[in-house]
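User: Show me sequence and structure for the first protein, then do the same for the second.

Assistant: Starting with the first protein.
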Amino acid sequence: MDFFDECLVRKRLEAEKAEYNSLETGMYAGEQLLTFCNKKLFEGRVSIYLPESFIDMPLEWRRRKYPYENRPPVIFMDESGAVNLCLNLVSAKIGTLNEMLNGFMLVLKKMNPSNIFMDQDMLKAVNVDCAWCEMRVQNLDGSSCCILFLSIVDHELLLGTFSCPNAIKNEWKKIAFEMIKSICEEGENES
């Protein structure tokens, strides 16, 4: 195949990928087309859209990756185990989301000064606000992109982290934010 043909094939693939840019249509992570499903968590109190290919992290993997006993109760991963989404719903003294996020960032920086915070902001999910920060975390096998996000759900703190190797961050970052924006407090309008 000559250069012109290669350019045409690449443009065609880029155009095809551009059609898959939402949770409804599916999204590409590298060459893999991900489709999404709505998962209800924490006894149906919270829902979030996740890739259908994500699985619950097996207990032995959880113990290795999160060696402390207070590990998140909800941990999803891709088939390789490299991409993870952790969620926890905890009773905590609730302040503003920004105050809580800044507190978490301070603790994380003190725990590991090599953590580099890249960005932070607020976003609107389905029916809750989320504060988030992105950081680069050093680990045994390189560095990871980690997005920490917080929301208040039913007067409790929803604490989540999305992580993937830095090498594939550009493939996953938009997907991660679309998943975060899909968070919904279930039954908030029920009487």
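Switching to the second protein now.
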Amino acid sequence: MAYFPFMIEVENARILIAGGGRSALWKVKALSGFGADLVVAAPSVLPELRERERAGEIRILLQPYRPDLLEGTACVVAATGDPEKNRSIAADCGARGIPCNAVDDPAHSDFIFPAVLRRENYTLAVSTDGKSPLMARKIKERAAEALPEEFDRATGALGDMRARVLREEKDPGKRMRIFEAAAQRLLAGECSGADAGEGSRTDAGEKAENTAAKDK
């Protein structure tokens, strides 16, 4: 199976997690922090899920899954602990055009969960296309150790200047040179986010002039 990594806006989107056990908890942990309306439906739930409800992270419906719970739902996680029931939920979702992840059953899932590294200004997702979730997690952990804090700070600074550059500079080639120069200066610690753009405009202009001179 082949998977393409989409980054989807989920803020305020209703996501249903059918199940209240360990698998449901893992999926809740993965989905938390992205602003989605997480709804857990199960006759009983783990104490850890209750704690998250008290913290305002999720809503809990103490009832078995029913098809009417799919109304207004953006996507579903079938994590009941019963493979047959999960497949039935996936079939209900398929009939309604709702993406569903059936836990540990890629053949009956429309999407799978990557291992996610979350920073303030960027998100890194690692997937093995379902071959080994454990290895995906190991790769993510190595990446977390290897990526310095400067990457996060530089990303935030570039985000602050991006809208201004897009507004003021109409030439796509010049924009890219400005962003490249700013990224290099930020990662090298040569400037702060406040003055990255101006210095980068100068660097980009010099590169353009040098290129033009060589072409003559």
